[in-house]
Design goal:
- The complex is a heterodimer.
- Chain A is mainly alpha-helical.
- Chain A is 73% helix and 0% strand.
- Chain A has 2 domains: 39 residues; 251 residues, MetI-like (MetI-like fold, Orthogonal Bundle), CATH 1.10.3720.10.
- The longest helix of chain A has 35 residues.
- By secondary structure, chain B is of the alpha/beta class.
- Chain B has a domain of 174 residues: P-loop containing nucleotide triphosphate hydrolases (Rossmann fold, 3-Layer(aba) Sandwich), CATH 3.40.50.300.
- In chain B, 36% of the residues lie in helices and 26% in strands.
- Chain B has 10 helices and 10 strands.
- In chain B, the strands form 2 sheets. Chain B has a 6-stranded mixed β-sheet with strand order 6-7-8-3-9-10, with helices on both faces. A 4-stranded antiparallel β-sheet of chain B has the order 2-1-4-5, covered by helices on one side.
- Classes of the chains: A mainly alpha, B alpha/beta.
- At the A-B interface, helix 7 and helix 8 of A face helix 2, strand 6, helix 3 and helix 6 of B.
- Chain A: It comes from Paenibacillus roseus.
- Chain A: GO terms for molecular function: phosphate transmembrane transporter activity.
- Chain A: It holds the Pfam family BPD_transp_1.
- Chain A: Keywords: Cell membrane, Membrane, Transmembrane, Transmembrane helix, Transport.
């Protein structure tokens, strides 16, 4: 085969692979959206689910998913960014650092059902936190924290060395150099990565079955006292998230329109994750411009 | 002849190792105030490594080790007790590729002084203006101080980097091939600037361009394979070198 033919064949193969992947994704998305989008209405998004009657909504589940995400980020962002800064700037290269890095990688690839059961044994029972949003957030931290560490570490490593040197050469401390020179450059990547990682949190079900629970108490959306058991803001109440709800009604739903609800809820889930992604990219660029005064 | 010249910086028996490889071998060199010293030599001769150890930038490279002494006034820079942060304020640095911060032009200059304690807006404005003026950049940027520095041309960015380093009032400015990434017009401007700046600072410049060394420097040091071969007045070194290796290099027989 001549070099020219080989080149042509390789090009065709690569393009077909790309087309295949795009078609697969488009098909999957289209399938979920087409099946579910007809079921989405304001009422569906805001009302509470019904156990045996038709016409139930996903309001509390949608709220739970978002609230759980916020709780998880409150825990993982400071820890993850801190550890990422340590790994990229302070940790001395060597066996110990490599070991930490390995542990972080292993942590992020844990099967989620194992994390769910671990959460049940340790967080729910041993720590006595019960089925609650907070337990769920801690379980999700197990996945999310390693991602945050890696995202931050890579974002900071991606900052050109001359930028760091320029700051140090002006007589700035290492900490000031990290916070004022390196972080602004790394931040868009960190933000984008964080929001992308959130997508996974949003779609996670297995780890939440035994930690955040499979039920929601009757929520009173006019009660904003975080300590009250019926308040949506109470982090220590059980909370079924959207992904868990989809799993539940698909496997044991009794409502006559369970299939449509599952389809509608799946579409909502996909749309929210897509929205997350677009917001992430837009926000990352916006922050970069704001921090660096570039137009 | 130069007995009354004040020393800006003085290196004694300086050696730099990367792991077990010795990149700079027992170099002793004096740099006088208000003079430009050029460090020349073929790639890999240790001149950049030498320059980078003068403000302890090599600390950042894992595996790098520096021995010997470097004196600024009463302080030995390599003394582990020396506060490296304070030290670096005394020594400005300009890199081969312009590396302005990803900030506005104003912030690029004000950033250092503000950190070192100048909070007064008016004072900062003055520093920004005078630094830009010294770097011959004021006229071009005075109407767009709050725009991103990244929008400037390469030559302007490099002058901004010089302005940034003089804003913290250093005594010494290290330049690592400051014009090698620039076009001839910008290069001429940078060279002109170096000649201006030497009235106030001790300047040490690494360059691959021997014409440039001849144009801007008062003294020249020739490095080869980690050794200092010859250090003399620029004119003498280029017209009548005392070492055969120097002669071979400047006449283009190798390197």
């Amino acid at each position: 085969m001549s070099a020219k033919t080989a080149n042509r064949v390789a090009t065709i193969v690569i393009i077909s692979v790309a087309v295949f992947i795009v078609a697969l994704l488009a098909g999957l998305l289209g399938f979920i959206l087409v099946r579910g989008i007809g079921h989405i209405s304001f009422d569906f998004l805001t009302s509470a689910p019904q156990t045996i009657k038709a016409g139930g909504g996903i309001g509390p589940q949608l709220f739970n998913s978002l609230f759980l995400l916020v709780l998880t980020l409150i825990i993982t962002v400071p820890l993850g960014v801190g550890a990422g800064i340590y790994m990229s700037e302070y940790a001395k290269p060597g066996r110990f650092t490599d070991f930490i890095r390995l542990i972080v990688e292993v942590l992020s690839s844990f099967p989620s059902i194992v994390v769910g059961l671990f959460g049940l044994l340790v967080i729910v029972n041993l720590f006595g936190l019960g089925f609650s949003l907070f337990s769920g957030a801690l379980a999700l931290t197990v996945f999310n924290l390693p991602l945050m560490v890696r995202i931050t570490e890579q974002a900071i490593r991606g900052v050109p060395r001359e930028q760091k040197e320029a700051s140090l050469a002006l007589g700035l401390s290492r900490w000031k150099t990290i916070t004022s020179v390196m972080m602004p450059i790394a931040l868009p990547t960190i933000i984008t990565g964080t929001i992308l990682a959130s997508g996974r949190v949003f779609g996670e079900a297995a780890a939440l079955l035994f930690t955040a629970g499979m039920t929601s108490p009757r929520l009173d959306f006019s009660n904003w006292n975080p300590l009250s058991p019926t308040s949506p803001l109470n982090p220590f109440r059980p909370a079924e998230t959207l992904a868990v709800h989809i799993w539940k009604i698909n496997s044991e739903g009794l409502a006559p329109d369970a299939a449509q609800i599952a389809a509608g809820a799946s579409a909502v889930l996909v749309i929210v994750v897509l929205l997350f992604n677009f917001t992430a990219r837009w926000f990352g660029r916006y922050m970069y411009k704001k921090l660096t005064a570039s137009k | 002849m130069q007995a009354t010249q004040e020393l800006g910086l003085s290196a004694k028996d300086l050696s730099v190792y990367y792991g077990s490889k010795q990149a700079v071998r027992d170099i002793s060199l004096d740099f006088e105030k208000k003079q430009v010293t050029a460090l020349i030599g073929p790639s890999g001769c240790g001149k950049s490594t030498f320059l980078r150890s003068l403000n302890r930038m090599n600390d950042l490279i894992s595996g790098a080790r520096v021995t010997g002494e470097i004196w600024i006034e009463e302080d030995n820079i390599l003394d582990p007790k020396v506060d490296v942060v304070l030290l670096r304020q005394k020594i400005g640095m300009v890199w081969q590729r312009p590396n302005p911060f990803h900030k506005s032009i104003y912030e690029n200059i004000a950033f250092g002084p503000r950190y070192h304690g100048i909070k007064n807006k008016k004072q900062l404005d003055e520093i920004v203006e005078s630094s830009l003026r010294k770097a011959a950049l004021w006229e071009e940027t005075k109407d767009r101080l709050h725009q991103s520095a990244l929008a400037l041309s390469g030559g302007q960015q490099q002058r901004l980097c010089i302005a940034r380093s003089i804003a913290v009032k250093p005594q010494i400015i290290l330049m690592d091939e400051p014009a090698s990434a620039l076009d001839p017009v910008s290069t001429a401007k940078i060279e002109e600037l170096i000649t201006e700046l030497k009235q106030d600072y001790c300047i040490i410049i690494v360059t691959h361009n021997m014409q440039q060394a001849a144009r801007v420097s008062d003294k020249t040091a020739f490095f080869y394979m980690g050794d200092l071969i010859e250090h003399d007045h620029t004119q003498k070194l280029f017209t009548n070198p005392s070492q055969q290796q120097t002669d071979d290099y400047i006449s283009g027989r190798f390197g």
